[in-house]
Amino acid sequence: MNEKIKSLRKKAMDLPLSPGVYLMKNSDGKIIYIGKAKKLKNRVSTYFGSQNNHPEKVKKMVEKVDDFDYILCDSEFEALVLECSLIKQYMPKYNILLKDDKGYNYVRITKGDWPMISASFGNDDKDCDYIGPYMSSFVVRQTVDEARKIFRLPFCNKKFPEDIGKSRPCLNYFIDQCSAPCAGKIKKDDYRESVEQAVEFIKGGSEATLRELTKKMNECSQDLRFEKAAYYRDRINAIKKTGESQKVVTDSKASLDVFALTIGKTKGCVAVLRFDGGKLYDSETFLIDLPDYSEKARYDILVSFYSNGRKVPSLVLVDGEAEDSELVEKWLCGLRGKSVSIAVPQRGEKLRLVQMCKNNASEKLAQTIGRHAGEVAALEELAGLIGLDHPPEFIESYDISHTAGSDNVAGMVVYKDGLPYKKSYRKFSIKGFTGQDDYASMAEVVDRRLGRYFEEKDSGEGFGRLPDLILLDGGRGQVNAVVPVIEKYDLNIPVFGMVKDGHHKTRAITTGGREISITSNRKAFTLVSQIQEEVHRFAISFHRSKHKSRSFASRLTQIEGIGEKKAALLLKNFKTVKALSLASEREIADVRGISEKNAKDVYEFFRKEKDS
Questions:
Q1: For residues 216-241, average pLDDT
Q2: Which of 406, 381, 407 is nearest to 392 (CA)?
Q3: What's the confidence (pLDDT) of residue 102?
Q4: By CB atoms within 10 Å of each CB, which of 12, 23, 240, 459 scores lowest?
Q5: Is the separation of the CB atoms in 179 and 164 below 8 Å?
Q6: Dihedrals φ, ψ of 122, to 5°?
Q7: What's the whole-number mean pLDDT along residues 404-427?
C-alpha cells in the first residue's frame, strides 16, 4: 500500500458512522466520483483497503483519488437525494451517467416553396423551422415517419424544385405513401397544404388533426366539392389506420418503464423501453463503462435516468435486484407526486417485457463490440447462472478419451466471446500413469496446462493467458480432482463440470457438491451443450488418431530394422497403411531417416502380405 492510499485510509477511518455523501477528487481538485453511504466510515474506508478485491473500474478510480470531501445527512434517504443533485451538478467521470451526448431532438422543416420534414439533432440551421425540443430521438423519428406516410410526403433526399421531372416515381408512390413531387405528380399549392397539415398533426396530435380535417371534409361536401372532400376523407382514414396499426405490446394501461442491463468484457449496455396505455412510446439505449457489480449499476442507472427530468411512471421493471431499491422507490414517489413501484418480474407478461428489453441491450452491445446478440446474451446468462461478476471472455473445456485405459488422451478446446477459438485448441497424451483413471487424467492435464502458464505468461497468448472459466466434461469427481490443482497454483478460476443425462445430452453444470440446471435457460444451455459436444469431438478424434497410429506402428515394428521412431517417420509421411503398402521401394527410401535396406524390407513385407 503506497503512502497516498495509507493517508486516505487514515482520513477515512476518522469519519463518523453516519449517513452522508462523499466526493472523491483528483489532484486538480476536480470531483471524479460521488457516492452515498449509510455509514460513511465503513463505506469510504473500503476504497483504501486492499485493492485486490476491487473491480477494475474502482481500482482505476482509486488510483486517481488525491483527496475526498464528505457531507453529513440526517438519513440515508436524504443522502440519496443529495447524491442525485450533486451528480447532476458535477457529472463525475466515474459515475454512471445516462446522458445523450448529441443534445435535444427536433422536427426540422426546411423553408421555401417545397419544404421537407425530417428528424434532427439540434436546431442550429437558420434556414429551417423547428418543432421541439424532444428528449427522445425515438419519438421524433416515429412521429416524422407517421406524418410522411399519412400526408404522402417524400422520404428521399431529393431537392425541390431542382429535381422535379428528373426521375420516375419510386415504390413509395405506388404504395400510396408519397405524392411523387419528383415526377411532377402533385401541384406546389397542394404539396404545401400537405406539409402544413403534417406540421399541425405533429404539433397537435392525431385527435386535433382529425377534428380539423373532418370539419374541412364536411364543408367541402356541403359546397359540393366532392373531389376535395374525398381528399380530406383519405387523410382522415390514413390517420386512423396509423393509430390502429400501433402495436399494443402490453395489457397494462398504466405508465410503465422497463430497464435491462447487459454486461460485456469491457462495456455494459442499458436498454430502456417506455410504455403508456399498453403501447411502446419510447426506446433508449446507453453504453456505459464496465460497472462494479450489477446491483450497484442498476441503482446508478435508475438515479441517473430520472435525474434528467424524465417523466416517472407508476411502475418500473428491472431485470435484477437494484441496490437500495426501497430508497429509490421513495425518491421516485417524491418526483412523481404519486406512488411508484420497482419490481423484478419472475413470470408472465412483465417478464416477457423485461426479456424484450434485455434483447435490445444485448443487440446494441453486440453491434458495438462486433459480435452477435445471441453470443452476448448466452455468455451473460451463463455468468448469471454460475455467479460470475462478468461474462467470461475465454472459456477452456477439457475431456478425457481412451479405450479401456489404453491410448489415454485429453482434448482442450477454447471459446472466445462465445465462439470456438481453434488456434488455442490443445492435445495432451496422459503421461503420469497407465490404465484408466479419468479423475487423475483430468488433474494431470490441468496441472500441465497451468504449469505452462507460468512459463509463458509474458506472451499473453495460448497457455500464457488464463481462462475466465473452466468447464470439464464430467461431474463432481472431475471437479473435485481439478480444484486442488488450481488452489496449488494460488489461482482463482471458476471450475464447473458439464453433466449429461441418460441420452448423453447436457442437462446441468456442477461444482462444490451442487448441480445447477440449465435446461430452462435456453441461451446458456445451447452454449454449454455446444462446448461439451465440441470438446468431446476434439478429444475422441485425437484418441482415434493415436490409437490408429499405435496400430500402424505395431504392424511396422514387426519388420526387421523398423523400430518405433522409423515407424513414426513412415506414418508421418504416408498417413495410412494403405498408402504405404502401395508405395514403391524408391518412394519409401525417399523418406528421410529410412535406409535403402529398410525400404526394401518394408516393400517386401507388404508384397508378402498381399500374396499370402
A1: 81
A2: 381
A3: 47
A4: 459
A5: no
A6: 85, 170
A7: 87
Question: Could you give the domains of the chain?
Answer: 3-90 (3.40.1440.10), 105-245 (no CATH), 256-370 (3.30.420.10), 386-547 (3.30.420.340), 557-611 (1.10.150.20)
By C-alpha distance, which of 207, 231, 208 is closest to 219? 231
128, three cell numbers: 429551417
pLDDT tens for 116-152 read 888 887 778 888 888 767 666 777 787 788 788 888 8
Q: Which three cell numbers stand for residue 92?
A: 463525475
DSSP conformational letter for 39: S
Percent of the chain's residues with pLDDT above 70: 90
Using pLDDT thresholds of 50, 70 and 90, give the confidence band for residue 242. Answer: low
What would the pLDDT profile of 575-606 be if each residue is shown by its tens digit? 777 788 788 888 888 888 888 888 888 888 87
Sign, CA dihedral 147-149-152-156, equals: positive
Tell me which residue has cell 402495436.
Answer: 247
Q: Say if residues 494 and 388 touch (Cβ distance below 8 Å).
A: yes
Question: From residue 459, how far is each of 1, 165, 427 by CA, in Å?
Answer: 28, 65, 20
Question: Stretch 88-99: mean pLDDT, rounded?
Answer: 85
What are the phi and psi torsion angles at 550 (to 5°)? -65, -40
Give the cell for residue 166.
Answer: 428528373
Q: What is the DSSP letter of 75?
A: S
Q: How confident is the model at residue 248 (pLDDT cuts 50, 70, 90)?
A: very low
Distance CA 329, CA 343 (A): 10
Tell me if the bond preceding 154 is cis, omega within 30° of 0: no
What is the layout of strands, in order, in the sheet containing 128-134?
117-121, 105-110, 128-134
Planar angle of CA 246, 250, 256, nearest 5 degrees: 105
Rounded Cα–Cα distance for residues 535 and 288 (Å): 35
pLDDT digit string, tens, across residues 279-325: 777 788 888 887 777 898 999 999 999 987 788 999 999 999 999 99
Could you identify the residue written with the cell 513385407? 605
User: Per the confidence metrics, is the pTM higher than 0.70?
Assistant: no
| Under 8 Å between Cβ of 83 and 36 | yes
Q: Are 483 and 477 in contact (CB under 8 A)?
A: no
Q: In the numeric block, which cell numbers belong to residue 212?
A: 380539423
Q: Which of 278, 276, 344 is closest to 311 using CA atoms?
A: 276
SS (H, E, C) 406-444: EEEEEEEEEEECCEECHHHCEEEECCCCCCCCHHHHHHH
Question: Is residue 414 scored above 50 in pLDDT?
Answer: yes
Is the pLDDT assigned to residue 208 strictly greater than 80?
A: no
